[in-house]
Amino acid sequence: MEKKELMEIFLKKDLIVDLESLEYFLKNPEQVEIFLREIEGKKVPSIIKIDFVKAILGSREIKIKEIKKKVSENKTFSVNDITQILIERYERIKSFFSYRMDIVNLISINKINEKTKKFSLIVMIKEVDRKNKTAVVEDLTGETLVFLPNNVLNFVVQDEVVGLVCEKNNDKIEVLNVLWPDIPLNRKIASLDEDIYCVFISKKVLEENMKKFLKEISKVKCEGLLIFLFSEEYDEKNIENLKMDLPFNSKLIFIKKGNSESD
Question: Where in the sequence is the domain holding 242, given as residue range(s)?
Answer without folding.
Answer: 59-75+187-263
